[in-house]
Design brief:
Strand content: 5-15%
Low-confidence stretches: 7-22, 159-185
Distance between the termini: 57 Å
Radius of gyration: 20 Å
Shape: globular
Order of helices and strands: HHEEEEHHHHHH
Number of helices: 8
Mean pLDDT: 77
Strand order of the largest sheet: 1-4
Length: 185
């Protein structure tokens, strides 16, 4: 009898894990650190990877929920194919528009494998570029025709890193009136 009850409990537990995985919510704090970056919680907020020092001085990583809301996506964990195609790194802490100044990164972000197939990553960099006064579709078009000129134009547009301001972080919707989203949305 005890064996039957134990087996039933194990079966129930296994089934509940399966059901939670299929019907459960994506909660950033519950994600493993190797899939945290470029994921979106069920709430529609982006997940971000943070590091902290432990009491013994070691650096640990944790996944947290940011305040940045993605309007058209929720419960999304970016694929390894998109991470590779777009040239992003899940293990980096924080994100910056500075990467748009790197020709190799911009080439990967603007390539069709990334730009047409990875709307989550493109949306993120679209908003970062818009925050710097740059329209990502135009930057990608200039990069395709003349990569060096695109970088010079980006630098001369004032999008180069400048002093830090106290402005609050932008959400995906903050730039919708200024510039339309990429055409695949």
């Amino acid at each position: 009898m005890a064996s039957s009850t134990k087996f039933s409990f194990i079966l129930f537990f296994a089934f509940s894990l399966f059901l939670q995985g299929t019907l459960g919510e994506v909660i950033c704090e519950d994600l493993p650190t190797n899939v945290c970056s470029f994921s979106i919680a069920s709430s529609g907020k982006r997940c971000l990877l943070e590091n902290y020092a432990t009491k013994d001085g070691k650096v640990e990583y944790q996944c947290r929920t940011s305040e940045v809301v993605v309007e058209r996506m929720a419960e999304y964990i970016e694929t390894d194919q998109c991470v590779s195609a777009c040239g992003v790194d899940r293990s980096s802490v924080g994100i910056s528009s500075d990467s748009l100044l790197e020709p190799q990164f911009t080439a990967k972000l603007c390539c069709p494998n990334c730009y047409q197939n990875c709307p989550n990553i493109v949306d993120l960099y679209f908003n970062l570029a818009a925050g710097e006064g740059v329209f990502l579709p135009d930057l990608c078009e200039r990069h395709r025709s003349s990569p060096h000129r695109a970088m010079l134009e980006l630098l001369s547009s004032g999008a180069a890193p400048g002093p830090v301001t106290s402005a609050s972080p932008a959400s995906s919707s903050d730039f919708s009136a200024e510039a339309p989203a990429p055409s695949f949305f």
